[in-house]
Amino acid sequence: MKTGRVVGWLVNDGAEIVPGAELAEIETEKILGSLEASATGVLRRKVAAVDDQVPVGGLLAVIAESSISEAQIDQFIAEFQTRFVPEPDEAESTAPGCEVADVSGHSLRYLKRGEGAEAALLIHGFGGDLNNWLFNHEALADSRAVYALDLPGHGGSSKRVGDGSLQEFSQILGSFMETVGLSKAHLVGHSMGGAVALNLALARPQKVVSLALIASAAFGPEIDGEYIEGFITAGRRKELKPHLDKLFCDSKLVGRQMVEDVLKYKRTDGVELALRTLAAQFFPGGRQAVVLRERLGQLSVPTLVVWGAEDRILPSLHGKGLPENIKTEILSECGHMVQMEAATQFNRLIQSFWQAR
Amino acid sequence: MSRQISLQQAVNEALAQEMERDKTVIVMGEDVAGGSGTQGEMDAWGGPLGITKGLWSKFGDRVMDTPISESAFVGAAVGAAVSGLRPVVELMFVDFMGVCFDQILNQAAKFRYMFGGKAVTPLVVRTMYGAGLRAAAQHSQCLYPMFTHVPGLKCVVPSTPYDAKGLLIQAIRDNDPVIFFEHKLLYSIRGEVPEEPYTIPFGEANFVREGSDATIVALGRMVHLASDAAQALAQEGIDCEVIDLRTTSPLDEDSVLESVEKTGRLVVVDEASPRCNIATDIAALAGQKAFASLKAPMAMVTAPHTPVPFSDVLEDQYIPDAKRVAAAVRDTMRYKA
After folding, report:
1. Residue A304 β-bridge partners
2. Which residues contact B39 (CB under 8 A, 6 or more apart)?
3. Pairing of strands A185-190, A208-214
4. What is the number of helices (H) and of strands (E) in chain A?
5. What pLDDT, in 10s, does the model give residues A239-282?
């Protein structure tokens, strides 16, 4: 992702802006989404017009107090544009900063952003990779080190998954933390990665500062088995697209690039076997075989559960009726990929959960 | 993990990984083991194109130098394929296909059909095509239309290192004869390629760029010109979709039609000479199946109907370039019925 196109503005010049307000619709090759404000003030100037392609990090608009003069705004824009250098083309394709850790015979790709104590670790779900946190990773890393890894069988990691069991995966996760020097961390697990994080928190709570479970597996037996089977089997764009559509509340978000990226992954040798092995352990016959709901009360670490209300893979109902030690947030108009679909809101939730602790 | 490598390295890696994975994969061709003309030193060159360098050292006699007799070694490979091996033959220039055409056209392409499905011919013929190397009329042709025309053959024309590796691995694993076309001027281009083996299915075109005003369909080296043209046209506010066919047989009709139905305008870029080439084939497809969507006549940007000239100046005129592609798109944009 190098540029975004302004599809339309959602606010007018002179509007009062508060953080979280939706400013514009932006289309990138990855996803179509709305840009939310991170500042308070008045929308003084739209720098980018509708249909403009703006490089990542470029200037879209200026939000400022009404006391700031037009001339000062002109000067700010001029200075920004002289200083601003778009990221070079190859920066994204070579996945800047990705490193590899050797963990019990698996070569695991990971990306570390930010610095600071009380590190966090982001764990993707079935068929995902560290790019599932594309809209979260940097924002969450503003005051601490945040790691995101590719689980065995996924992304840029080696594709062997052993028996693919919950025990094996949570052991690997624990060993990964030791390998990269994390004695303990905030864990954020999505979907199947939630089950893995949860199991680690139950087995080795001393490694876990807090636990955020996002549309997590292991909360009940229900799952869309057709999705799992369809995701594994689909070999072409047309076959895969309808399954990926199910991951979002608004399936317009699934662009061709997203489908291509998933296909690229799926066409790698060893991936089909890895996915089949994991599906047989976690979701055989269209039901979840690993259910840890009864053990949630035993959790000794602060735990937050986040769900998209419109999740079509794992029902948001699984996030209800949980023990009192667990805080649940259900975000409306979001599907299974809630961290992408409501990135700003999601990032704020996780940040304040970490800070409250 | 992936990294930037050249198309030449991508082809070499695909061969090495498949030879490693499957011991029935063998490589044959002129100088591919690199012995000839080097006082007996083996693996000296890696073939005339340097593609097979390192394979002989790793796989020994599974990399075979052959006499300069295409009809003999292509015939031998067809026989090897039908009796259980997976030969990858390097035919230096596609222009030499004439001398071994019977082996391909009448033997390899027909076995599955004439033996009632009881025989398969998992043969890959890798061959170099295209103009631009000052190699004149007998070493510069784009002959993929001739092979596309023959039922029973699959034809692959990659444009990037990523596609070259994935499509070649697919070709080697495929049970039918595949002709794999490598453009001389693309060997040095670099791109992101995963280290692990992977496949790209035949018959799925790649959307290089999405756009709404006009569809540019291209293949092989022409994909890069089409992208350059689309980039230039974007500055003028013309939003082009660029489709890379990847394989001409099987052909991804759906992607072409889906795009033409959206844009209503079609420009096909093909380096082959203009009669009965891929451009005419794609234009006919759109004319037949997307007629109602067309807002302007289909345009074709191709080489002229003449042998590739020896003169540098004329050769440069002969090969389509991005300016001609952009001009063709502008013409379709201006068209009024």
Report:
1. A212, A327
2. none
3. parallel
4. 11, 15
5. 999 999 999 999 999 999 999 999 999 999 999 999 999 999 99
pLDDT per residue over B25-55, tens digit each? 999 999 898 765 566 677 777 887 789 999 9
Q: Does B192 touch chain A (CB under 8 A)?
A: yes
Contact A267 B200 (CB under 8 A): yes
CB contact under 8 A, A256 and B210: yes
User: DSSP class of residue A92?
Assistant: H
Decide if B204 and A109 are in contact by the 8 Å CB cutoff: no
**What ipTM describes this predicted complex?**
0.90
CB nearest to B194's CB, from A90, A236, A268: A268
DSSP type of residue B104:
I
Task: Report the gap between the CA of B300 and the closest CA in chain A (Å).
Answer: 27
CA dist B172 and B180 (Å) reads 10
- Tell me the whole-structure pTM to 2 decimals: 0.87
Domains of chain B, residue spans: 4-192, 206-334
Nearest residue to A39 (alpha-carbon basis) of A17, A24, A65, A68: A17
Nearest CA in chain A to B234: A53
Q: Identify whether B183 is a catalytic site residue.
A: no
- The C-alpha of B234 sits at a distance from chain A's nearest C-alpha, in angstroms, of 11
Q: Tell me, what amino acid is at A38?
A: S
Q: Out of B139, B149, B183, B305, which one is annotated catalytic? A: B139
Domain definitions of chain A by residue range? 3-91, 98-356
Looking at domain A98-356, its CATH superfamily turns out to be Alpha/Beta hydrolase fold, catalytic domain (3.40.50.1820)
Question: Which of these CATH numbers, 3.40.50.150, 2.60.40.10, 3.40.50.300, 3.40.50.920, describes B206-334?
Answer: 3.40.50.920
| Candidates B3, B4, B198; nearest CB to A267 | B198
Q: Give the distance from CA B9 to its chain's centroid.
A: 16
Which chain A residue has its CA at the smallest distance from B198's CA?
A268
CB within 8 A of B68, min separation 6: which ones?
Answer: B30
- Architecture of the CATH domain A3-91: Beta Barrel (2.40)
Compute the C-alpha angle B10/B11/B14, nearest 5°: 85
Structure confidence by residue, pLDDT tens digits, A150-195: 999 999 999 999 999 999 999 999 999 999 999 999 999 999 999 9
Say if B235 is an interface residue toward chain A (CB within 8 Å). no
**Cis (ω within 30 of 0) for the bond into B250?**
yes
Taking the domain B4-192, which CATH number applies?
3.40.50.970
A264 close contact with B: CB closer than 8 A: yes
Distance, in Å, from the CA atom of A149 to the CA atom of B265, rounded to the nearest integer, reads 44
Bond prior to A55 in cis (omega within 30° of 0): no
Q: Are strands B247-249 and B154-156 parallel, antiparallel or unpaired?
A: antiparallel
